[in-house]
Each structure stands twice: as structure tokens, then as C-alpha cells.
Amino acid sequence: QVQVVESGGGSVQAGGSLRLSCTASGLPLDDYALGWFRQAPGKEREGVSCILWSGGETYYADSVKGRFTVSRDNAKKTLYLQMDGLTPEDTAMYYCVAVLGGWPARDYCTASTQLPNSYWGQGTQVTVSP
């Protein structure tokens, strides 16, 4: 049974940090890309960061480059998103997704259509106050 579960969201003040975690089970992760997406009320979904599990190629949206860092722990089958220098504009529901691989990391995060062969988590809320 495939499960994708996020954790680590919360409320922080501007300038603070949070680390999100995503555990993906039931998948051969070497064949997958994993990513973090976010969606704020009234806004379109944004691909924040994506990583190819095998090889570690990464992509970051311009809006988070230099502030967010994606990493993975193979043994724990866990994906992380370290978020530093948070601003109120980072407030959103953050989702983790596992997608069957074959594309460059960038293509998963910037896809304009629904990601095929994907498994989404339930989301974790991040709220940044001024």
C-alpha cells in the first residue's frame, strides 16, 4: 500500500525556520521523483522544489531559491524541506508528491498539467506571520 505522509508544518514569525518531512512508503523510490508543492488560498499550486530520488538532481522555484533546501534520507525513505528566512508569502498548504520518474527534476515542479503516475500526501499547513 502506497502512503505519502507529510509532517512538520506550523506557525512561525517572519524570518523563522521550519523543516517539513515526507515519508513515502510502498514505492521503489529509485524510480521516482519527489517534490514539494504549495497552494495558498486563491492562488495556483506552485512547485516549490523537486528531487530525483536516484541521483539527487534538484530544482527550486525562484521564489524559494537560496532559502529552502530539499534533501532525502534513503534509509528512512524520507524527504525533507528545510525552510529558512520564511516570509508571509510562504504561507500555504504544502504537499509532498511522489511521481514515477523519467523527467528532469525541473519538469515535475513546473508541469502545467496533472502529474501522471503520482501519489500525493494530505498536506501540512505553514503559516508565517509578519
Question: What does this entry look like structurally?
Answer:
The protein is mainly beta. It is built from 1 helix and 11 strands, in the order E-E-E-E-E-E-E-E-E-H-E-E. Strands 2, 4, 5, 6, 9, 10 and 11 form a 7-stranded mixed β-sheet that branches. A 4-stranded antiparallel β-sheet has the order 1-3-8-7, with no helix packed on it. The chain is globular, with a radius of gyration of 14 Å. It starts with a strand and ends with a strand.
Q: Please give the share of residues in helix.
A: under 10%
| Derived structural class | mainly beta
Q: Strand tally, please?
A: 11
Distance between the termini: 41 Å
> Uncertain runs with pLDDT below 50, 5 residues or more?
none
The total of helices stands at: 1
Summarize this, please?
Helices cover 5% and strands 50% of the residues. The chain has 130 residues and is mainly beta.
Keywords:
130 residues; mainly beta; seven-stranded mixed beta sheet; 11 strands; 5% helix
